[in-house]
């Protein structure tokens, strides 16, 4: 189960098909907006940057910054 009783951010390792929990927590922060993303709602991340995004729009915004 991904949920934890800790009301702290989780630390994750992002892979191409999922993520691995390195430190338990209930959420991660969006790298663009800073918004808390509950682990059960996490759908967008970058394997290259190892960071999470709250939406497809924010992921696209971040990933096109360097282009």
TrEMBL record:
Record-linked InterPro entries:
DUF2093
| Protein known as | DUF2093 domain-containing protein
- Highest taxon listed in the record's lineage: Bacteria
């Amino acid at each position: 189960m991904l949920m934890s009783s800790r009301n702290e951010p989780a630390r994750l390792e992002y892979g191409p098909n999922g993520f691995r929990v390195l430190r338990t927590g209930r959420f991660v922060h969006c790298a663009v907006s800073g918004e808390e993303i509950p682990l059960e709602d996490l759908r967008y991340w970058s394997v290259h940057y190892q960071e999470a995004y709250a939406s497809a729009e924010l992921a696209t915004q971040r990933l096109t910054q360097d282009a």
